[in-house]
Amino acid sequence: MKKIVLLAISTILLFVSCASSPEKAAEAHQEEVNQAFEEVYGHFDKLLILDGAKDYKVKKGDTLSKIAKDFYGDDNGYYFPLIMLASSETVLDPDLIEPGMVLTVPDLQKNLADTSVHESLKGFFTEIADVYKGKDTATAGTVREELLKIARAL
């Protein structure tokens, strides 16, 4: 009986220590963030006009904001969620792009000019900003505010 109780206690302690390790906690948190992004992308998956979209192969040192600036202009780096929406089959979290990934870059002006897309983008940027509430990065608050500015301006 004592062996069973000791085995049960040991198993519980092992489970708790594994479950509470920083790596496990970080993985669990990233999974929650990925699910939140996936929900938003799923809600808006048919939103974008992809005629004229370009493929871009991520290089070492790239960020989504840099890619957005390269394609959309220096003042439009925070339009990167459009690239993420168009590329959601490749990667969910904008902070997890890696060299070699091929992203789809939709035509910003074409999408802003379309009335139905333009109207939906306000909700899309607002929901993406909400996901940033749960991100544990130094820039998450700034990114969230910039995305909300875009949503209000649309």
Summarize the structure.
With 154 residues, the chain is mainly alpha-helical. The protein has 7 helices and 2 strands, in the order H-H-E-H-H-E-H-H-H.
Number of helical runs?
7
Q: How many DSSP E strands?
A: 2
Order of helices and strands: HHEHHEHHH
What are the low-pLDDT stretches, counting only 5+ consecutive residues below 50?
1-16
- State the end-to-end distance: 68 Å
Q: Kindly estimate the percentage of residues that lie in beta strands according to DSSP.
A: 5-15%
What strand line-up does the widest sheet have? Answer: 1-2
Task: Report helical residue fraction.
Answer: 55-70%
Question: What gross morphology would you assign?
Answer: globular
Structural class: mainly alpha
As a whole number of angstroms, the C-alpha radius of gyration is 20 Å
Averaged pLDDT, please? 87
How would you sum up the major sheet? 2 strands, antiparallel
What does this structure look like?
- The protein is mainly alpha-helical and 154 residues long.
- The chain contains seven helices and two strands, in the order ααβααβααα.
- The chain has a two-stranded antiparallel ribbon.
- The longest helix has 22 residues, at 22-43.
- The protein is globular and about 50 Å long.
- The relative contact order is 0.14.
- The model is unreliable at 1-16 (pLDDT under 50).
Throw out a few tags for this protein:
7 helices, disordered N terminus, mainly alpha, globular, 154 residues, two-stranded antiparallel ribbon
